[in-house]
Design goal:
CATH class: Mainly Beta
Radius of gyration: 18 Å
Shape: elongated
Structural class: mainly beta
Number of domains: 1
CATH architecture: Beta Barrel
CATH topology: Porin
Order of helices and strands: HEEEEEEEEEE
Largest sheet: 8 strands, antiparallel, barrel
Amino acid sequence: MKKTLLALLTTAGLLSVPAAFAQNASATNGGWFVNGNVGRTTINQGPYNGHDTGYAINGGYRWSLAPNVALGAEVGYNDLGNIQARNIFNSQPVINPGKSQLHGWTAGVNGHFNLTPNWYVSARTGLYGWRGHGLSNDANPIRQGLDNTSWYAGAGFGYDFSSNVSLGLNYDYYNAKKSNVNLSTNMVSVSAEYRF
């Protein structure tokens, strides 16, 4: 609980920094945004070596610090562990109950940095409140439902088609460990973002 409280206070402090600088910067790259990612998840832990399809939905606000720099806050939801997209077109189940079933809520900070007027790099990090099911890494594995608060981080690059729309490629890591069960998952995804 103390770690979670400390992380929340740290995040709140980081969120106040962009507001202090936003007064002198151009407002063209700041504002509200919503984005979605779909991609391939990878987990390499004990009985869960494999790939699935995952998705994430995020929204938030960025403050413009300079014409090519915007920092902001985001919240979102993701499902990383049990979607078999290829089964949409056959009689197999799309949701596989034997997988890790990792999903959760995110709250953190992000940045959008334009290298040219159209090409950008991005970064994000924050708290990850997750739930999942997994087998313990013991001599006698036990499947158990777990939940915890941990962290996530990611980076990406992409292309701004206009001041409102962009497409990108991202790598994200979601830390999810508890009670000798490790469901930590990587995701490589394609993202689309709309800025208001």
